[in-house]
Amino acid sequence: MAALSKATILTDEIGAARLKNLTGFTRFYKIRPIEPQAHMFALKLWRQLPAPFRLSIINAVQQNKRLYRWLLFRHVDAKDRAAGLNINLPPAELRYRVSSTPDAENFITVGRICAADIQSALSKVGRDLGSFTRILDFGCGCGRTMVHLKDLASAAQIDGTDIDTSAIEWCRHHINFANFSLSNENPPIDYQSNTFDFIYAISVFTHLNEDYQFRWLDELRRIAKPDAILLLTVDSSLAGEDGFVFQRSYENGLFPAWYQNAFHSKEYVLTKFGSYFDVLGYFPRGMNAHQDVVVLQKRKIPVDSVNHA
């Protein structure tokens, strides 16, 4: 995940123009000019402070990550309002939670790429998004990928679920073509058995500890229809000799202890995930040229007991 200090902030009219020209942007994220008077007044006051005093404030803020993030989000939201990007775009904090940057252009571009990569991975196993009738975005966040699937799966009923209350509330108020539910930290999830014929989870299993991942694999198997397709992403970059590594170092204070950084080797995935589903394909760096894509299929006759040893 990108470090906070590397977060890209949209700060000029050129950046806003690029956003407006992105394919599909104007179809969903509406744009309306808004006068940035309050923001410009605050910026003017800031510039009137002595340079050494401003530097000392910046240094103090950078040492307090929570305060740093809070100020960063307020700053980016003000820039979005000035550019007219706040009408139907998630606020900076929600964008940051799914991509480690509040940058609006990054949010839209990566969402579009992920949707295209889902379609690409499915085509490699002989499937197409348009063939599904009930789709679940497991860990949907604020809908970064989902909004780009609408045209690719126009006949399907799309659902999204996440444990992030703020993200789900935002989706319910701004994305009208899908249904949303708030998930619990642990299964069960509020869906009937054998409900979905396609489930995807982008950058979810890259953060779950081993106990949680097994619980959720079992639950996803329950709510998937027989022969349903599941598409998950994993990160194999630091998997190590054991095949699974869990690092408790992900944005201290922002996410719970069980949701940090997880790394899986291909062999681990084929063995462990393969005890829940048939593995149809494994595509290195197949999601946004970063995470590996795993395509699974639910067996018609499930295995009753799973041995993780």
Low-confidence stretches: 1-18, 30-35
Count the domains. 2
Number of helical elements: 10
CATH class of the largest domain: Alpha Beta
Q: Provide mean pLDDT, rounded.
A: 82
**Cα gyration radius (Å):** 21 Å
- For the biggest β-sheet, the strand order reads 3-2-1-4-5-9-8
**Pattern of helices and strands:** HHHHHHHEEHEEHEEEHEE
Which secondary-structure class do the elements indicate? alpha/beta
Question: What's the CATH H-level homologous superfamily of the largest domain?
Answer: Vaccinia Virus protein VP39
Largest sheet: 7 strands, mixed
Helix content: 25-40%
Instruction: Note the overall shape.
Output: globular
Count of strand segments:
9
Distance between the termini: 30 Å
Q: Fill in the CATH topology of the largest domain.
A: Rossmann fold
Any overview of this molecule?
The protein has helices at residues 13-21, 25-28, 37-48, 51-63, 65-83, 92-99, 104-124, 165-174, 210-223, 266-272; strands at residues 134-138, 157-162, 178-182, 196-201, 224-234, 244-247, 261-264, 278-287, 291-297. It is of the alpha/beta class and 309 residues long. The strands form two sheets. Strands 3-2-1-4-5-9-8 form a seven-stranded mixed β-sheet, with helices on both faces. The chain has a two-stranded antiparallel ribbon with strand order 6-7. The chain starts with 12 loop residues before the first helix and ends in a 12-residue tail after the last strand. It folds into two domains: 11-99, no CATH class; 108-297, Vaccinia Virus protein VP39 (Rossmann fold), CATH 3.40.50.150. The chain is 38% helix and 19% strand.
